[in-house]
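Technical note accompanying the year-one report. For the benefit of new consortium partners, we illustrate the data format agreed upon in the data management plan: each record pairs a sequence with a structure-token string. No post-processing was applied to the example shown here.
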Amino acid sequence: MPVTDLELLIQAAERSGEIATKFTGPEAKRWDKPGGAGPVTEADLAVNAMLEDMLPKARPDYGWLSEETEDTASRLSCDRVFIIDPIDGTRSFTEGSRTWAHALAVAEKGVVTAAVIYLPQRGLLYTAAMGMGAKCNGAPITISDLTELGQANVLAARPILDAHHWENGVAPEFTRSHRPSLAYRMAKVADGRFDAMLTLRPSWEWDIAAGDLILREAGGDCSDRLGAALKFNNPHPQLNGVVAANPVLHTALITALATPEH
């Protein structure tokens, strides 16, 4: 019996973990990408090579978008596309931290339909398929039901507190926390350990595609910084930030955020 897209992504994520954990992060060969795009290591490239061989063979009619593969326009003519970050949190990986993830997703006509976020060194496997709910290590997960923004524990980088980001010039009095992997931040909101997450910087599709579905299947709302639904497989694969929480907190955050000036 043919495997589903989710089953295929789970198999691919587990193989990715087997490859990546053979490397010692601080000792892995690394290079800095042009234009300040961050580091890449031999582990990222090894995982990407395996995935780029395995997944298109299983789904030859799917397009391909990966952080570590030179992008081409051919994916834009595909109804379905793999969206892959071989290692999300590469900088953390190079520092020897365990907080990095493999983020794998399938999007159909712009909407993510299957997703996996796997942290092999933390033993966490987050999964979701459209209409099937979200799970961590096989157990259903749901988003936090907290509704008071001032009491929320929000995953975000420190610059989010800058006054110009907020409608009244003052950030809400939520508690700010941080994790180095954007995919992991989204997963930790999906499993209810944190109440919301946001990033206001332009965000690459491969960092957020898997988390978008896992969050939504866990009962959350996930949008760009203006409240618009996230759509994937764009010609330029970057979106206008991410805001994610339960529906009440999501509305509160979008309302409190200032409209960016152009």
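Partners are asked to follow this layout when depositing records. Residues 5-140 form a domain with the Fructose-1,6-Bisphosphatase; Chain A, domain 1 fold (CATH 3.30.540.10).
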